[in-house]
Design brief:
The complex is a heterodimer of chains A (70) and B (502). Chain A is mainly α and 70 residues long. Chain A is built from two helices and no strands. The longest helix of chain A is centred in the first third of the chain and has 14 residues, at 2-15. Chain A starts with a helix and ends in an 18-residue tail after the last helix. With 502 residues, chain B is mostly beta strands. Chain B has a single domain (2-22, 36-103, 148-228, 272-315, 352-500), classed as Porin. Chain B is built from four helices and 25 strands. Chain B has helices at residues 2-20, 95-98, 124-127, 230-238; strands at 38-49, 64-76, 81-94, 104-111, 139-147, 160-173, 179-190, 193-206, 211-224, 255-256, 277-292, 295-308, 316-317, 325-328, 344-346, 350-351, 357-370, 376-386, 391-398, 401-402, 407-418, 446-458, 465-466, 469-483, 488-500. Chain B has a 16-stranded antiparallel barrel with strand order 1-2-3-6-7-8-9-11-12-17-18-19-21-22-24-25. The longest helix of chain B is centred in the first third of the chain and has 19 residues, at 2-20. Classes of the chains: A mainly alpha (70), B mainly beta (502). At the A-B interface, helix 1 and helix 2 of A face strand 1, strand 6, strand 7, strand 8 and strand 9 of B.
């Protein structure tokens, strides 16, 4: 587990050395479907998944609060 | 009380932050972080059913219907500051909460006009609710007896509830727009559960905004108002010596496994909670990187600590090493775990018991690729591990397809797999000698698939107006969720975003 995590961190550090994209060349990256967060309508799915599954988190969603017992 | 004080302190920090920004404005022109106020109206309808209800110890209906209207308003307070307020109500009916008291009254008849008796008035309120059957002319009601089944939701007072939630968030961007700080407070309330939350976040953008790194902290201070299963509540209220002759059990027949009336039922393992708090502390790390003009990636990492009452007070347990006791019809005892059982309910030995701390470690990676003007590929993977022995993997793929400048459709598929938590056991498999136990299948080993389809409309001109609000975006989404332990769910959501044009 520790090795996997370190590998992901190393990969990320490596990737940060990639070529820098200028603002005026970000037309594709600025497409609404390219955003790096969950869509607004996924919040409800995220809520029920937190309730119905043992795992949660690491998706910008809620990680606590509320019961979800039903 | 402690939670209230902490919440008030957090609120003052929040207000102070808001007013503190007034001195940070500059005279030079800056593009506003948010040009105009935005209003999001969201609504979801969710229903599920399954065969492993935790309130019945791991068997029975899991039927649940939930509707959640939500409104989110984002307001630019200045060039640099944005206030977002989010409020919603989740109204639900649930077999799990209704079967805290699973019993309903059923009349006992004698046929023939000459046989008349005084009707015993055991009302629905005290007996768990339910429909009283009107006798035909040649029948006489001679009394009512309580019956129940794990395969039907009772209609008692607890079958429906509302969760009211409000969340306020404020963010401040630096003049360069390369640093963002924010704070938030939240509150939610349902009949037996109250939650206060607060937190803060810090985000930095580097390398010509090609790299983004964020840190976020959240605290939730929650309080239970514990509701126990009816039979255990009576045991708690009246004590071992008299609970079968007072209150709910007065005049009610308790049957043993052979269907013979007995007074031997004694849930001595049950002890009410001595604490009611549940706190969650989360530290989240986020980093994203643009890799090319069409590819970007993000890493999410949370460290979550929970402490307090992490179990649910009305989830029943049945021990393998304890005799079974029932209320209802003796003829259905032999088919108790089958959906054919309509008239008998097994009395609990205890409620679930789980450790008072849990550490969660989820790591997620999201990678989005702009294939061409028509297709975008959105991918997400998460690995999760916690100290309850639960490990999980999640993979999600979305493929937005642009039909034209205004419309797009997005098919999605999500695969999820988890191992069993250390404390899980199916119906009536745990032993009374164990320290921790649960029959909640949300903690069992399972695999689930979710299939979704979304339709999205984005207006370029915001030409459709309601007053000063112009329509910016409209989306519909349907998802079908299939868990391989029998749980199925449907969720339908609709969202509309308006922008204030004036």
């Amino acid at each position: 587990m520790k090795k996997k995590f370190l590998a992901v961190i190393c990969l990320f550090v490596f990737l940060t050395s990639c070529v820098s994209v200028k603002e005026y060349k970000k037309i594709y990256l600025n497409d609404p479907d390219m955003k790096l967060s969950a869509n607004q309508n996924e919040r409800f799915e995220n809520n029920f998944q937190v309730y119905r599954e043992g795992a949660s988190g690491a998706n910008s969603g809620k990680t606590g609060g509320g019961c979800g017992c039903n | 009380m402690r939670n209230t004080i902490l919440f008030i302190l957090a609120f003052f920090v929040f207000v102070d932050f808001t007013t503190g920004q007034q001195t940070d404005s500059t005279k030079v022109y800056k593009k506003k972080v948010l040009e105009n106020a935005e209003v999001d109206l969201l609504m979801s309808l969710y229903n599920q059913d399954g065969v492993h209800s935790p309130v019945n110890g791991g068997i029975g209906t899991e039927k649940l219907v939930d509707g959640t209207p939500t409104i989110t308003i984002s307001i630019p307070l200045s060039d640099d500051d944005v206030l977002t307020v989010d409020a919603g109500i989740s109204a639900y009916t649930s077999a799990s909460s209704s079967n805290i008291n699973p019993f309903r009254s059923t009349p006992v008849y004698l046929k023939g006009a000459s046989l008349t008796n005084t009707v015993t008035t055991l009302t629905g309120a005290s007996r768990g609710g339910g429909t009283v059957v009107v006798p035909t002319p040649n029948q006489t009601i001679v009394g009512y007896v309580p019956i129940g089944t794990p395969w039907l939701a009772s209609t008692g007072a607890s079958h429906a509830d509302k969760n009211k939630a409000v969340h306020a968030d404020i963010s401040h961007s630096s003049d360069s727009r390369n640093f963002i700080v924010g704070s938030n407070v939240s509150y939610s309330k349902e009949y037996d559960y109250t939650s206060y939350g607060f937190g803060g976040n810090l985000t930095g953008l580097f390398n010509e905004k090609n790299t983004e790194i964020g840190l976020k902290g959240s605290v939730y201070l929650d309080t239970w108002k514990p509701l126990y299963p009816t039979e255990l509540r009576e045991y708690m209220d009246y004590g071992a010596a008299t609970f079968q002759s007072q209150g709910y059990f007065n005049g009610v027949k308790i049957l043993n496994q052979s269907g013979v009336q007995t007074t031997a039922y004694m849930p001595s393992a049950f002890k009410p909670w001595d604490s009611k708090g549940r706190n969650s502390y989360t530290l989240s790390f986020f980093a994203s990187q643009i890799l090319s003009q069409k590819l970007q990636v993000a890493l999410f990492f949370d460290l979550v600590m929970q402490e307090g009452m992490l179990s649910t007070p009305y989830q029943r347990m049945y021990f393998a090493d304890k005799p079974n006791y029932y209320i209802g019809s003796a003829s259905d005892i032999s088919i108790y775990t089958s959906p054919l059982n309509e008239h008998v309910y097994q009395l609990a030995d205890d409620i679930e018991r789980l450790p008072t701390s849990r550490y969660k470690l989820p790591i997620g990676v999201r990678m989005n690729y702009y294939i061409n003007e028509m297709f975008v590929l959105r991918s997400y993977y998460r690995y999760y591990i916690d100290n309850w022995g639960l490990k999980a993997n999640t993979v999600n793929l979305d493929l937005p397809v642009k039909l034209n400048q205004l419309f797009s459709v997005t098919p999605s598929v999500r695969w999820y797999d988890q191992s069993q938590a250390d404390y899980f056991g199916p119906f009536e498999t745990h032993l009374s000698t164990e320290k921790y136990y649960t029959s909640d299948y949300d903690l069992s080993k399972f695999t689930s698939m979710q299939y979704s389809m979304a339709l999205n409309y984005t207006s370029i001109t915001n030409s459709f107006h309601i007053g000063s609000l112009g329509l910016k975006n409209f989306n519909l989404k349907y998802s079908y969720y299939d868990r391989n332990d029998g749980l199925k769910a449907n969720i339908f959501s609709v969202g509309v975003k308006f922008v204030n044009n004036y």
